[in-house]
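G., the chain you wanted modeled:
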Amino acid sequence: MQQTQSQTQQQTAIMQTPPNVMTVKDTLYVKDQLSWLILAMKKCRHFANECSDPEIKQAIDKAGQMHERHYKLLLKHLQNNNDAQMQQVPQQQH
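Predicted structure as C-alpha cells:
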C-alpha cells in the first residue's frame, strides 16, 4: 500500500510557478476556481457573523482568510500579458 502512495505522489508533480502562457482551457479552470473561492469567502463571512461561539467564529474567519489569500494569489498569477507571452512560443512549421 505504501508503494502505491509513493507512485501516486511521484506521478502528480506540483507546479511551483504558473506557466507563462495560459490556454483557453486553463483560463476556464482558473475562472471556475476564482468563482469557488469567492463563494467560499462569502460563506465563511456569513457563517462567522452568525456564530456566537468566539472560537468557532475565529476558525471560520481563518478559513475565509485562507480562501481570500488563494484568490489574491490566483489574481497575481493572471497579471501577465498572455498575448506577449504567446508571441514567444516557438511555432511549428507545417
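The mean pLDDT is 82.

Shout if anything looks off.
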